[in-house]
Structure formats: structure tokens, C-alpha cells
Structure prediction request, 438 residues.
Amino acid sequence: MKKIKRIGMAIMVTAMAFSANAQKMGKTPEDSLKCIENLSLYQESYKMKNYVDAYGPWKEVLKYCPGNSKNIYIRGVNILKNMIANAKTGEEQQQYIDELMMMYDLRIQYFGEEGLNKARKAMDLEQLRGEKAVEEYYKLYAEAVQIDKEKLEASYIYKFFEATIFYVHTKKAEATLIIDNYDLASTLLEKALKADPTNADIKAAISNVEAAFSPYASCEQLVEIFGKKYEENPNDIDLIKKISSLLESKGCTKTDLFFNTTEKLHAVEPSPQSAYMMGNLCLTKQQYGKAVEYLKEAVEGIDEDKKYQAYIRLAYAYQGAKSYVASRSAAYEAAKLDPTKGEPYMIIAALYAETAGSCCGSGPVMSRVAYWAAVDKAIRAKNVEDTPEMVERANKFISTYSRHFPNQTDAFMENVIDGSSFTVGGWIGETTTVRTVK
Prediction:
């Protein structure tokens, strides 16, 4: 009689639980009763780390109440991996692996977190089935990244990129997929690091991605991979942007492909940034007139953090074009933007030295007075920027051009006396101090 009462009570409790939360306990009161019975059985065995005994009732729980708790799935990983490790035959092992994969699908169905659980599923599949499952686990990683993007753990983003490389190596896809997915992975990781700058896991993932990408990051490799793509799709703006950006980030700015894509991008979608890049490219190619036009366009609208460099480049472009007054003006604009830099004054010093023989007159004295103004600017450069590099560079310039000062005897004959004030004429128009050599 007591036994009957206990059974009745269990059924009543089960029915109440079923009506309160059918999804967690089972679809029917009978399912819920089996769920309760097997929950207790598998949990006891699991606590004792007796995964073999836990396996049977755990499967029943998964069958009758798959929405009961996340713990079913967390513990299920350990149970099934133990069964896989101790399987007696390959067939039996594959059965348990299949069950593990299906378990992840159920977890997504009942508890969501689709991206994260697909990444977990991919990692387990990669570890358990290896090379022969590359197509399957690569696609799972790719789906996880697309679903979760910035939310996905950094380690899974790296695994996604690592899987990409192996997937391509098995000739399942073209090498451009490596570039595409490197761009995606590195962008996501950089965003994550910006949000959490001290996170060691994110930093490690970035290092791992860069190391994995390194064999494909040479300019020759990138040009080979993207050259054909560009030839096939010369008007694909998204492709052009990707090529130009990647080649710039990898220091491949001297390649014809970078020049061509950047020029095309500027023609289609002109911007101060693309004008700046084109100005740099033309400067490198010594196309000074074109460089001036692009850089003039750039300085009018480029971001403030890049404006200093844009004016520096413009000064060099004008110098190359022999437009010395304009070059000096651009250098002074750069100096206003960053008064701590010596580069603008080194440019002006070079302009004065370059035109010394023609700017201010002829003869042994007047053809050399511009060197005083040139050395003054080099002294100014190291005074405003006392870094070892700038000081060394300025001192070298001063040493070189001080030797070009007028001879003391020649200067005396023209009533030019050491230490006196002197105005250098011509386009320079600088007041300086007389210095001579014996």
C-alpha cells in the first residue's frame, strides 16, 4: 500500500512539474517521470566520474527532456569524450562522435548560443576526425564567425583562420580565401582588442593569426594572388578597396598593383585619404607634378592626425618639382601642426643648400651665404626635436655644409665680418649670422 502511495505521489509531482514547465521536464507526464528517474541516476554516476555508467541514463535524459538544463550538454561532452576514448572499435568510436555532434545541435535548439556552440562543435570535430573532416569543420567555424562576429571568443577566430589555411591546402578552395578570411579575422580581433586593450587571449590570437598568415604575406605572394583577380574584375570597387588596403598594410606600396588599384579607387571614389596615397605613390615614382596635385587635394580635407605628414609629403613634392617657395610654405604648415618635429626645418635647410649657388648672387662669398641660413635651419631642427636620430641627422648636415661657408679672407675683402648680421637675399630672404672658414 505504501509503495502504491509513493508511486502515486511521484506521478502527482511529475504531473505538477509537467504542467509548470513542460519543456524542461518532458513532453508528457510519462516522459517527465522518466526524465526525473534518469537525471538522478546519471548525476550520481557522473559525480563519481563513472562515465560509463552515466552514459545510459544520460542518453535517456537527452531523449525525454532535452531542454532540462545546460548541464546535460556540458557534462555530455565529458561523458561522450570518455566513451570515444575507450571505444573498442573504430565503428563504435564513430558512433559516439556522431552522438557528440548531434548533442551540439540539440543544445543550439534548446539553449541558443548558435555561433559559440558551432565553434565548439567544429573544434571537437577537428580534434576527433582530423583531416578527413576539414570541409565540415571549416564550414562550422565560418558559420560561427559570421553568426557571432565580435562576440566570438578570440581563440575560435584564430581556429577559423587556421582551418581556412588547411581547407585551401586540401585544394577545396582558391588561395584568395586565405586573404579574405585573414582580413575578416584580423578585423574582428583588432576590434576586440580596442574594446579590451589588456586582454592577453586576444593579443595571443592576433599573434597566432599573423604568424599563420606570414607565409602568404610577402608582396610577391599577394600580387600573385590578387593580380589575376584584379585583371578579371577591374571595376569591382569592393575588391579594389580590399587589394589597396591590404597591400598598404603589408608594406607593398611599391608594386604596380597597389598603384593601379589605388589610382582606380581615387578615380571612382575620390577622397582626401586616396589622394594622400596617390601623392605618396607619385612621389616614390618621382612624378613630382602629379604628386603635388594629389597632395594639395589631400591636405584640404584629410584627418588632422594625418595632416602633418600630408604637408611634409607636399613639401618634398614641391622640392622635387623645383618649386622652392611653395615647398618652404608647406614645410612651415607642417611645423605649425606639430612644433615638436624637426623634419620641416630639415626640408627647408635642404632647400637653402640646394639653391645656394644660384639664389643670392655670384662670386666666392655671395654664392655661399645661403649655407648660413641652411645651417640655421638644421640647428633649429635639432633644438625642437632632440631625439638621437634627429640630432645625428642635423649634426651631419651642419658638419657637411659648414665646410661650404665663405672663406674668411674672401669675406673680409667684401666687408663681410664674422659674427655680424647678414640678410640672405633672393627667394630665401633670411637674416642670419656671418660665419667663415679659414
The chain has 24 helices and two strands. Residues 1-23 have pLDDT under 50 and may be disordered. The CA atoms of residues 308 and 334 lie 5 Å apart. The longest helix spans residues 90-111.
